[in-house]
């Protein structure tokens, strides 16, 4: 809840104090009652990086604690607490400690499975906790392990099974796709998961699963799955909700999807698909409103625009939502098999430094070719080389000297680090995971609006704003940058006092 409020810019919260509360929950043993206070099984989680089988809800807790750790990392990063960020981002990968990559079941390979304290995978587990009999039963991804005398909250998974929880990694979907064997294999896995009735609409662990098609560039398939789930499981009769509403969980899931936008809790965006109602208006807390409307005939999701601008990743940032306006969803009668060429179909590049969610830039831009020169100071050696920027589809091609950097639009829009591969090797081609001599549009907006951003894991603060140039300085080492964004890119016109020994100036 704290991370979601922070990611969406909710005011009136002391986030430094909130972070301390989050850290206490993550680091202080809850004491005598592990059911009512703090993180139950915390000692084992910190010791092993997972909860061993035999501790109540060991599977559920491991997966959800990893997500909690990601949320702590997110807030810590935004507050400039990079020591905490690095530690908890690493801990957010603990879900992989229960990922059994070689386990194959139901034509699918790789599941979250039980492991004991010695690190051994368990193919069979005790049936209950009887002190007299100790029967073992095979454990599979659909095993419940709950005899009559064992409370359902004492099982390995709570309110879901391994088949479901193995797809419930909301903070690291790219990592999940990779663990499953890539985008094509992941698409087949999702299709089989739904077609073989493994999906459980009645409990929260599967809430995001229909939207996972977004991460392989197929929000149209998300749209089709959501429509089918709603038509088969919701109605306007007294039993119209498919499960316990849980303080509004079931009904809010329905409301969001009826409007064609769904949040990934703790993160800053909404995933978009074809609404099930033709028109709606959302009254926003700032007095503005967002109007949604469906255009076209049919149910196949084609594209979506915000105030006339194409959202080429079927995602809407909360900050853009709060500006209000008109969100137009375009649909057609195209069949599922025909697919949708608008959205990216390849696995998105993810920074090696950070697990992230679906990260493709919002607006389709046609940036003109930019030709200039860059003068480097490389460990006190001076070099001046030609520098060009040109778009080729959704890839920005940067040429410096005779080296080429291929930078996806996702990184141009939302990147959080520089590419430090130097152009000294003629003919080199780099698939860059960061920006080259510029910062992302997102980072530039944060500097303009908030006076601070995190880039390369470093907090940069606005010093002054001469003309249209932003002068910023790094908290940690006093490195300075002068950044200008005109019709091209947020170019770093000058980098000075860089401890890496790499300074530069760009001809305007």
Describe the model.
The chain is α+β, with helices and mostly antiparallel strands. It is 25% helix and 25% strand. The protein has 13 helices and 23 strands. An eleven-stranded mixed beta sheet has the order 17-16-15-14-13-23-22-21-20-19-18. A five-stranded mixed beta sheet has the order 7-8-12-9-10, covered by helices on one side. Helix 12 (409-414) links the parallel strand 16 and strand 17 (429-431). Helix 2 (15-27) packs antiparallel against helix 4 and helix 4 runs antiparallel to helix 5 (82-91). It starts with a helix and ends with a strand.
Average pLDDT number: 88
Strands of the largest sheet, in order across it?
17-16-15-14-13-23-22-21-20-19-18
Summing up helix and strand content along with how strands pair, one would put the structural category as: alpha+beta
**Alpha carbon gap, first and last residue:** 45 Å
Could you estimate the helical fraction of the residues in percent? 25-40%
* Count of alpha/pi helices: 13
Radius of gyration, in angstroms, nearest whole number: 25 Å
**Amount of beta strand:** 25-35%
Shape category = globular
Reported for the largest beta sheet, the result is: 11 strands, mixed
Strand count: 23
